[in-house]
Design goal:
The chain has one domain (5-74). The chain contains 1 helix and 5 strands; from the N terminus they run βββββα. The chain has one helix at 62-74; strands at residues 5-9, 17-22, 25-31, 43-47, 54-59. A hairpin with a 7-residue loop joins β1 (5-9) and β2.
Length: 82
């Protein structure tokens, strides 16, 4: 099984959006809302795209967020993703 590769997608509604693809198919995404003076935001990991996307978890490290999507795609019974 091939590794999930992430590509940044420029979009106004979800800043810092990276979509993960495997064999040319979109399999998940990560994003980080913009920080403000009072709030610091963590990366959010999702497996799936659109309405079928399932939230995995928050993490402060972008690489950890990417790894969560990778694990959920390769091992779908882990991390609560099905």
């Amino acid at each position: 099984m091939n590794k999930v590769t992430f590509t940044r997608v420029k979009q106004q509604s979800l800043p810092n959006l990276y979509v993960g693809t495997q064999d040319g198919v979109e399999v998940g995404f990560i994003y980080k809302p913009t920080d403000t003076k009072s709030d610091k935001n963590a990366w959010r990991s999702y497996v799936g795209i659109g309405d079928s996307a399932k939230f995995l978890y928050h993490t402060w490290d972008m690489n950890d967020a990417m790894e969560a999507v990778q694990l959920a795609v390769v091992y779908p019974n882990t991390l609560g993703a099905k």
